Amino acid sequence: xxxxxxxxxxxxxxxxxxxxxxxxxxxxxxxxxxxxxxxxxxxxxxxxxxxxxxxxxxxxxxxxxxxxxxxxxxxxxxxxxxxxxxxxxxxxxxxxxxxxxxxxxxxxxxxxxxxxxxxxxxxxxxxxxxxxxxxxxxxxxxxxxxxxxxxxxxxxxxxxxxxxxxxxxxxxxxxxxxx
Length: 179
Known about the structure:
Blueprint: E1 3-7, E2 10-14, H1 23-32, E3 41-45, E4 48-52, H2 60-152, H3 157-174
Parallel strand pairs: 2-3
Antiparallel strand pairs: 1-2, 3-4
């Protein structure tokens, strides 16, 4: 619904931004404006004013034509505003998309580095297991030699067992308690 403001300098017809002044409303308003305001009628449509000098005795079709022109201008400005908002949204979405693609690439590279590190660690574990097996074999052969010496000499059994115990302790310490 239009709001009509009558003042000494003229008449202002103001539309609601959510429901602009329609052609029919302007025609009805023009019929009701008193004759003493034959100066200027100001039509304010949506959110911008357009001042149009109108003689109040204009025919209804001329008024309707002028209102159509105003609505056309208003629609063009509205469409342009929508385009600008759309362009801003598209630009923002493109930026977000590029950021997500970059983040995905970074995560993929980090995953590949982690996989390479895991493979290196698994390889090192295999090497350490092999070294441990070799060390265990060496200790077993050393222990077997001492046991053989102890069995061969009856007088030094107690001393031989002490050496075996010491070797066993060294073996446990060097393997980190795995034996």
